Task: structure prediction
Amino acid sequence: MRVLIVGCGYVGLPLGAELARRGHEVFGLRRTADGEGELRAAGVAPVVGDVTQPESLRALPEPFDWVVNTVSSSKGGAEVYRAVYVEGTRNLIAWLAGSGVRKFIHTSSTSVYAQTDGGVVTEESAAEPLTETGRLLVETEGLLLAAAREQKFPAVVLRVAGIYGPGRGHLFHQFLRDEARISGDGSRLLNMIHRDDVVGAAIAALERGEPGRIYNVADDESVSQLEFFRWLSEQLDKPLPPRASAEENAGRKRGVTNKRVSNRRLREELGWVPRYPSFREGYAEDVKRNA
Ligand SMILES: NC(=O)c1ccc[n+]([C@@H]2O[C@H](COP(=O)([O-])OP(=O)(O)OC[C@H]3O[C@@H](n4cnc5c(N)ncnc54)[C@H](OP(=O)(O)O)[C@@H]3O)[C@@H](O)[C@H]2O)c1
Result:
């Protein structure tokens, strides 16, 4: 297959490397040529473009059989979300519809689920986020699902949990730097996924994903923040982090969710099996290195 990875970064680069290893012809798109060496070393042909600039997409070396959109907001706010996710996706659909593309994978987020009761969340559960950025992700998904329905655009949506892996993992790094705080009573559930298992899910979706369908991408074990820190404390022989102040807790309230994201559909329908079923396996190497 000729594959284009749009936003070939933290997830896109190892995904491109794995697809190239499997014999596909892979192109990786970023906004600048700065990382060309890194892409080439992974067996990915670098291309430059910007999803917010449709003319830059039309200059790409078409046609592509598979397209994966792993563009991120680069930590920007709602304005960037609208430009990169909503308008960027609109531009990608307009550019690719009718091009013969066979599968289009979009990486959305489990942050679209606003549930706070700690219950199990499946793809059938309500996706009614309270934050503006969450709503923009739902709007983006809506564009893709409508295109799948109305134009037979072969879009598959992956709702991805908090990604960790080499060099990534917000709470883990805060813990190492002694900057972590236990929020509230620590009972809020975290839903995580190792980067390499996002890569596996994207490949499963490219090969077997059903257009117009949503799949959650999370590991097997939602874990409370307190339990996660407890495990790190034991493994690294460090004290538990202190509790957050009332002020810090109040500041975090908005958009804070509490849920167990189910990966059952991804497992059962696409045969995906996580290499790292929980944070314990996923962080084992990092923990060993920092012990
Ligand atoms: N991080 C998480 O925990 C998490 C959770 C759920 C879902 N996700 C989603 O998972 C996907 C992959 O995340 P990631 O961490 O791999 O992302 P990332 O590395 O932060 O960014 C991906 C790439 O997007 C490129 N990019 C940014 N703006 C662009 C634009 N306008 N046009 C073209 N390329 C652009 C960046 O390259 P340049 O800056 O060089 O252009 C970067 O290489 C994203 O869709 C993200 O929203 C992430």
Notes: The domain at 2-167+191-219+258-276 is CATH 3.40.50.720 (Rossmann fold).
